[in-house]
Amino acid sequence: MAPKKDAKKPEPPKKAEPAPAPAPAPAPEAPPKPAAVDLSGVKVDFSQDQMEDYREAFGLFDRVGDSKVAYNQVADIMRALGQNPTNKEVSKILGNPTADEMANKRVDFEGFLPMLQFVVNSPNKATYEDYVEGLRVFDKEGNGTVMGAELRIVLSTLGEKMNEAEIDALMQGQEDENGCVNYEAFVKHIMSV
Amino acid sequence: MGCGVTKTSEFNRRFDKDGNAIPAMKAAVLIQRWYRQSVARMEMRRRYTWNIFQSMEYADLQDQIKLYNFLGYLMDNFTPSSSERKLISHIFRENEVCRDAEWERYFNYTNIDVPDIYSGPRLTFPLDMDQAADLVEAFKNKQQLHSRYVLQLLLETWKLLRMLPNINRVSTCHSKEITICGDLHGQLEDLLLIFYKNGMPSMEKPYVFNGDYVDRGKDSIEVLLILFAFLLVYPGDVYLNRGNHEDHIINLRYGFTKEVLSKYKLHGKRILKLLQKIFSWLPLVTVIDQRVLIVHGGISDTTDLSLIARVDRHRYVSALRPPKKKTPSRTNVYADSERYDEMIICKNRRGSLTFPKQFSAREGFQRRSLQDFSSTVARTLEEEFEVRRRQAEYSLSSYSKSHRILSSTLSSDSEPDSSEFDTSNDEWKQILDLLWSDPMSHDGCIPNEVRGGGCYWGPSVTEDFLNRHNLQLIIRSHECKQDGYEFCHNRKVLTLFSASNYYEVGSNRGAFIRLGPDLVPYFVQYQATRTTRGLSFPQSVKRTEHTALKVLREQLFVHKSDLLSAFQAIDKENTGLICLTDWASAIERVLHLDLPWQVLHPQLVSSTTDGKLDYHRWFRDLALKKPSSEHIEQSMLETLYRHRSTLETIFRIVDTDNSGFITFEDFRQTLKLLSAYLKMEISDEVINELVINTDTNNDGNIDIDEFMEAFRLVDKSRLERGKSLLKLMQDNQSLPQETETPQTVDSSPPQTSQCPALQISDPPALNTADSPSSQTANPPASQTASPSGSNTEDCSASQTEDLCHISVVVPPQ
Fold first, then answer.
1. Which of B51, B431, B491, B587 would you label with B377, given CA atoms 20 to 30 Å apart?
2. Which PROSITE patterns match (chain A) (predicted)?
């Protein structure tokens, strides 16, 4: 097994509960930062209804009452609104903030909108088929199931790593008695949440 | 060099051996992204569900306050006819029994016999530890304590409480750790869980309980008896603070009165009366090591502990009844300070809780009888409320100033010695602030209009208060928190809530804390449920959300008439369509719940075309009912249903002897009162029909519970089918009893067979009888980090049938 290296960026653990500040990952090695996104050129083009919708959702995540949300909540709000950016993408949009900035810097609704628009405009959408295809990678025997254990290892070591608690929550009730997961059912199940 | 690239190629290398061309990395990222999205959506749903429950809870509280303001307004401005006088003045009159000896006779328990078949605890006084433990065990086994012992225990408690100061002072010397618990709200399971996990109170294990022991939960009296028993056994190690629900008027609405009357049919009234006194004698505040303040609600910018130490706390029986004036000649005559309360005759003065009265208008009123209330009064009522609303916008300085106006105008009106009244008004405000206030994140101190009492206080007020009194931390309760506790104001204020699953199974955890000599809180969180299998976090969110939405849809449905008018006002061309934004703002204008309607709309609206909603169809979907000729009756039904809590509260007020029955005449008057309050016509015919149909045994009395039962059974489907209320009453007679009667030891004469002993759920449904108790919620495996990010330990309790997952949070250093 290849030795694990530190993640390029600290990944904010996802909220299964309303903890405000996620624990930052250990300090990354100093990689070159990718170019930050320039938001000033983004034209916000949402309808009135959509704006109200987004404003309300934004308000739901504001726990302090100052009509702003912390940087580390931005990704979640976007996801709650139906977008699906990776953490890396969100980080770029936020200007590659440090862990401290992620926890403490705040953005208001007006500042959030161009960020959201940028994500909406970006072409990186995944469908149900993409997810199933993604999982099929791990289907060694080509029989529609993947080994739960393998899935766990992959999810915790590759990409934007998930921690054990997240993986447990994800996999709960999905493995059969042989430790196998039927991945089409898996995808359908979670997408229905 | 990015490690991602390395990894992919490494992984690629591994997979290439198997001949697989797709990078596993991409797959992993996809899954992770999509998982995180589902978690984020779950979080959003959890948050708005929480908002729904909270706003409905507070809206309900406001109703209560409005009702009292209204009744007091009537009281002061109208000369009731003799029948009306009886009705209204009961609310504001004190008891007739006044002397100590008479009280003792009234509360005498010695002539109550305990039958041999009674198998519950038989208490002997003074109580000892074993008896207290037996009591806990008995309640755990669903037994009920016989009313004789209840009265005896309460009497002893009363005697003890009268000797306690307003401010409990506790010390953590001898390396004692003090356990502190927040709101329990009649949830016996939570108390049992705390005792199981932490041990019962003892000399080595002191406890502080921070109020709100009763209401909402179904075992309020049991919780209270346990706490009092331990207080009697360990008076130096158990400390009880008063909460805003330790108040007999609040109990009328929120379930405690009902619970006691149904469990103790024969002696319930006496028990309630005794409790009324006991509540007023509960200490107000506890201070630990002169450094930590424990109070139920909070503080305001005028809170002064030295003043609080001096008040006669028992004079403030209820938050909704400000102090009465004392006639000076009598002040010194009676040793027992309670007597002069009772000796005051009718000149009861009322100040409303949040809105000071408008006195200039008062002189202009003609004396009217309640009979000719109708439109003239309704108009003036509007004006009155408008004035009060405007006054409520004042800052605190004019808030207290208007209190001065209140007291000075009153005193000029009748007896002298107004300065004394001023003092008691100040004291009353101090106590209200202690029991009703909430912290807020903005600076300043403003009246708490959401609750109708106390204030909202900001971080600088906390700083100032702590400095002035040389304290370091305020621990309070009063607000439900998702994780059982929450810090605010720069960790100087801690909210602690001990009733888990408060809104719904899985809605929140409860918590208690231990405080050692270092005064650093050590938290324990829990969720009390009977578990066989746990629900996953998404499942529990879904379940709670489902209940919240159901309640919300119900609210929308019963406000149909108002909503329809609002929509039609916008849809001037009468197209039947309305855009979502307008829909959302109209709903907010009608319901005032401050909820994210746009976010909620997919749950509430089945379809829209081009962003527009067909509202007639929407109403039909909500109700599945076709418009019918019974329109008038439908809206009356709707109104009564919507205001059933208020209706019930009025009933219970009217039922002054707490018998559970009211006469025809009172019933009639009650409905008229309600119609005046709502500014809506309930015709005499309808009232007569209702009266005839509700008196089932034809003895001229109406059983309150039975009448309200009709409402409990009026669920959406019945409203949908457009059944008239009358038909429902008739149907009700033939319905089977649905309640579980506890092992009743009260040997009371059998009531009419149709009188069910039940808990009627007020909206929003908390602890509804029909919520299945088999499902539970497991807190997520990843425990909540305490706010400063310190480590959390996860320890599972040894499984008893009654326990669920318990986690321990290691406090930050």
1. B587
2. EF_HAND_2 (PS50222)
Active site residue B245: yes
Question: Chain A interface, mutation test: which of B32, B488, B604, B783, most A Cβ atoms within 10 Å?
Answer: B32
Q: What are the tens digits of pLDDT across the range B248-273?
A: 888 888 889 889 988 998 888 889 88
All residues of chain B having their beta carbon less than 8 Å from the beta carbon of residue A103 are: none
Cβ A59 vs Cβ A40: under 8 Å: no
pLDDT band at B296 (very low <50, low <70, confident <90, very high): very high
Distances (CA, A) of B337 to B281, B307, B315, B419: 12, 19, 8, 19
Do A172 and B536 make contact, defined as CB atoms within 8 angstroms?
yes
Pick from B784, B178, B771, B225: nearest CA to B503: B771
Q: Which of A60, A85, A160 sits opposite B599 (nearest CB)?
A: A60
Q: How far apart are CA B802 and CA B193, in angstroms?
A: 8
Closest chain A CA to residue B784: A19
Cα dihedral angle (B594, B595, B599, B601), rounded to 10 degrees? -110
- 3-class secondary structure, A78: helix
Count CB pairs under 8 A between chains A and B: 183
Nearest chain A residue to B37 by CA distance is: A79
Residue type, B131: Q
Give phi and psi for B208, each to the nearest 5: -120, 130
Q: How far apart are CA A161 and CA A172, in angstroms?
A: 18
Asked if residues B289 and B471 have their Cβ atoms less than 8 Å apart, the reply is: no
**C-alpha distances out from residue B739 to A48, B560, B714, B755, B759, Å:** 51, 32, 17, 11, 8
| Burial of A117: CB neighbours in 10 Å, binned 0-12, 13-18, 19+ | middle
CB B263 within 8 A of CB B214: no
- Condensed to tens digits (0 to 9), the pLDDT of residues B91-132 reads 555 444 455 666 767 778 888 888 888 889 999 989 999 999
Which of A57, A138, A159 has the CB atom closest to B29's CB atom? A159
Answer yes or no: do B41 and A75 touch at CB < 8 A. Answer: no
d(CA B406, CA B399): 10
How many other β-carbons are positioned within 10 Å of the β-carbon of residue B125? Answer: 12
* Cα diameter, chain B: 103
Q: How far is A165 from chain B (nearest CA, A)?
A: 5
- The ipTM assigned to this model is 0.76
- What is the pLDDT confidence band of residue B29, given thresholds at 50, 70 and 90? confident
Burial class of residue B707, CB neighbours in 10 A (0-12, 13-18, 19+) = buried
Q: In what order do the strands lie in the sheet with B445-447?
A: B438-439, B455-457, B445-447
Backbone phi, psi, residue A106, to 5°: -125, 155
Q: What percent of chain B has pLDDT above 90?
A: 27
Flag whether pLDDT at B594 surpasses 50.
yes
Is A154 within 8 Å of B782 when comparing Cβ atoms?
no
d(CA B128, CA B19): 78
Which of A13, A49, A138 lies at the smallest CB-CB distance from B611?
A: A49
Condensed to tens digits (0 to 9), the pLDDT of residues B130-186 reads 999 999 999 999 999 999 999 999 999 999 999 999 999 998 887 789 999 999 999
Question: What's the first-to-final CA gap in chain A, in angstroms?
Answer: 34
Residues whose CB falls within 8 Å of the CB of residue B459, separated by 6 or more in sequence, listed in order: B441, B443, B488, B489, B490, B492
DSSP-derived secondary structure letter, B324: P
Phi, psi at B304, each rounded to 5°? -135, 110
Determine the residue among A6, A9, A14, A135 to mutate to test chain B binding: the one whose Cβ has the most chain B Cβ atoms within 10 Å. A14
**Candidates B90, B174, B185, B245; catalytic one:** B245
Partners of residue B1 in chain A, C-beta under 8 Å: 31
Structure confidence at residue B772 (pLDDT) = 33
According to the model, what pLDDT value does residue B690 have?
65
